[in-house]
């Protein structure tokens, strides 16, 4: 059995379309059912539904052989997993943003830049590499609020269309990385279940 | 002040069955190593910090538990055994006939995130062959194979690569060290899209880019070596392919080729590796159970040029998987009363070599 971890939501919908095209189909309606484990009709594939940020963990430990996750989640997790394939969906940017009119990262003006984010590792790596001291303010949602209420000087967040930023009077200062969905594979599964892995990669291509 | 009953993160305590199982595993592996004429070495738990840093590389500095002794020397709790063994081989054993074959078993300490059954203090058991030349690679791989078989693990894969294949390619690329590490990082993850993005930003000829682009795919059986030959022209990479081919051919003859995967994108590991690199995987675990490789440069840093190759098992990880050949028997003691006649009876049983359990 080849186990694939996916997060509920948009990535799941798009992944299921890909699976369907590759002939991997499910008896249940994966999108509406409340179950967490689904076996494909071919008896060879199983998908498990997990939280987006947990996908790398399931795969790194081998609880799932493979997973589909955004690059943002992978960068943040620092999980040691093989990433053999980029998928052509889930496009967005990981970016530093600030109130309209602010165009710098803040390293020159501020002794320490306060950055609100749900990506503390990505943020730390990015600012450290530039030698700018940061104070990470960890938030779990509505990151855009932080500069408006004076909680932070900058934010690091996912930007899709930029609409949310715009409506809250924020703008991108610098793009950290272009993100899209990735197929990730456990290192042991990559060796032990080589045939299945290659078939699965082929199916998604 | 923390309560004395707390334990520091990263430590663990084995009791009863778990401890017995560790010793059974350890004994089984030691007997395999001894069967290949390896002798035990019991190195110290600490040594000078520089001894380890020379070999492991600066990337691991922050993982080392270090302290200062009363003379002001910087010491470290051993984060690995290979440096200690290499140092001993070129100093204490300088005049010993080559090859020097040594095995060790014990705890090492690294300040890292406990993961995959490995705490900050974890048990390693492994072998080192010093001065055995290139053919020692095969010996080491065969010992790894026999060890896994001895534990009753019939399905396993050894992922075999060589730092010289990638090394030969980057030798001819004029890029700053930092860019090379980034290349290494994305190749290590077989991160095709990441590699593509990075290559676009690098000032390299298209021919070089297409070689680098191919590396993550160069994994599989013998056909990988043929494919790789079509890509490269530099001597160092060619020699590494010849050597891998030689190993593959021997494994094929021995009927072991199905356990071997050639992986030319295998570029992970300590800085001290100079030739082959390998990791062993088993079906029940998401992490490798053993890893090793060639480290010819390390003995030279201690004063003598000596070929060197070795590998080690992570005992903590082996303990997580079923090892059907190894029974860990429960104690079968005769119970006797804890009184005068009981003590006498107990002594008699002990003299006869029987296990006793006093009922106190």
How would you describe this structure to a colleague?
The complex is a heterodimer of chains A (205) and B (360). Chain A has 205 residues and is of the alpha/beta class. Helices cover 30% and strands 31% of the residues of chain A. In chain A, helix 4 links the parallel strand 7 (113-117) and strand 8 (134-138). The two termini of chain A are 21 Å apart. Chain B is of the alpha+beta class and 360 residues long. Chain B folds into three domains: 1-153 and 282-329, 2-Layer Sandwich (BirA Bifunctional Protein, domain 2), CATH 3.30.930; 157-266, no CATH class; 333-360, no CATH class. Chain B is built from 13 helices and 14 strands. Chain B has helices at 17-35, 49-56, 82-90, 136-150, 163-171, 177-188, 192-201, 206-214, 223-229, 235-253, 297-301, 315-318, 340-351, and strands spanning 39-40, 46-48, 66-68, 74-77, 100-109, 121-130, 157-162, 219-220, 260-263, 276-281, 290-294, 308-314, 334-337, 356-359. In chain B, the strands form three sheets. Chain B has a nine-stranded mixed sheet, with helices on both faces. A three-stranded antiparallel sheet of chain B has the order 2-4-3. The longest helix of chain B is centred in the first third of the chain and has 19 residues, at 17-35. The interface between A and B is medium-sized, with 23 and 24 residues.
């Amino acid at each position: 059995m080849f186990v694939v971890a996916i997060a509920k939501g948009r990535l799941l919908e798009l992944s299921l379309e890909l699976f369907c095209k590759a002939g991997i189909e499910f008896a249940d309606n994966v999108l509406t059912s409340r179950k967490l484990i689904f076996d494909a009709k071919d008896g060879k594939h199983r998908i498990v539904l997990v939280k987006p940020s947990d996908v790398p963990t399931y795969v790194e430990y081998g609880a799932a052989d493979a997973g589909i996750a955004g690059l943002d989640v992978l960068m943040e997790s620092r999980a040691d997993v093989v990433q053999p394939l980029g998928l052509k969906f889930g496009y967005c940017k990981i970016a530093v943003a600030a109130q309209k009119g602010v165009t710098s990262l803040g390293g020159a003006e501020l002794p320490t830049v306060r950055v609100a984010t749900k990506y503390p590792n990505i943020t730390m790596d990015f600012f450290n590499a530039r030698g700018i001291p940061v104070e990470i303010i960890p938030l779990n949602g509505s990151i855009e609020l932080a500069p408006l209420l004076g909680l932070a000087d900058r934010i690091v967040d996912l930007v899709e269309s930029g609409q949310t930023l715009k409506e809250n009077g924020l703008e991108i200062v610098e793009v950290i990385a272009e993100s899209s969905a990735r197929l990730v594979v456990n290192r042991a599964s990559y060796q032990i279940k080589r045939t299945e892995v290659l078939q699965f990669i082929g199916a998604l291509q | 002040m923390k309560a004395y009953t707390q334990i520091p993160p990263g430590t663990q305590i084995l009791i009863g069955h778990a401890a017995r199982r560790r010793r059974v595993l350890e004994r089984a592996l030691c007997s395999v190593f001894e069967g290949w004429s390896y002798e035990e070495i019991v190195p110290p738990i600490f040594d000078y910090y520089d001894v380890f840093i020379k070999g492991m590389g600066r990337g691991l500095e922050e993982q080392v538990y270090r302290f200062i002794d009363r003379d002001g020397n910087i010491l470290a709790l051993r984060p690995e055994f290979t440096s200690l063994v290499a140092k001993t081989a070129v100093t204490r054993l300088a005049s010993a006939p080559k090859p020097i074959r040594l095995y060790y078993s014990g705890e090492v300490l690294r300040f890292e995130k406990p993961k995959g059954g490995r705490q900050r203090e974890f048990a390693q058991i492994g072998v080192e062959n010093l001065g055995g030349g290139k053919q020692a690679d095969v010996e080491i791989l065969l010992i790894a194979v026999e060890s896994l078989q001895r534990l009753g693990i019939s399905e396993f894969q050894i992922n075999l690569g060589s730092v010289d294949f990638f090394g030969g390619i980057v030798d001819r690329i004029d890029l700053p060290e930092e860019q090379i590490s980034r290349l290494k990082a994305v190749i290590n993850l077989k991160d095709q899209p990441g590699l593509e993005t990075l290559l676009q930003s690098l000032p390299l000829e298209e021919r070089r880019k297409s070689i680098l682009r191919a590396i993550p795919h160069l994994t599989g059986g013998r056909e990988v070596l043929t494919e790789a030959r079509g890509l490269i022209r530099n001597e160092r990479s060619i020699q590494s392919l010849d050597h891998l081919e030689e190993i593959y051919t021997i494994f094929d003859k021995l009927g072991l080729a199905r356990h071997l995967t050639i992986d030319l994108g295998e570029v992970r590991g300590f800085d001290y590796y100079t030739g082959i690199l390998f990791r062993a995987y088993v079906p029940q675990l998401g992490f490798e159970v053993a890893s090793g490789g060639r480290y010819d440069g390390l003995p030279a840093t201690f004063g003598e040029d000596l070929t060197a190759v070795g590998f080690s098992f992570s005992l903590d990880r082996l303990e997580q998987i079923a090892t059907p050949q190894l029974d860990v028997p429960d104690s079968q003691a005769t119970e006797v009363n804890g009184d005068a006649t009981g003590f006498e009876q107990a002594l008699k049983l002990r003299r006869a070599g029987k296990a006793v359990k006093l009922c106190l």
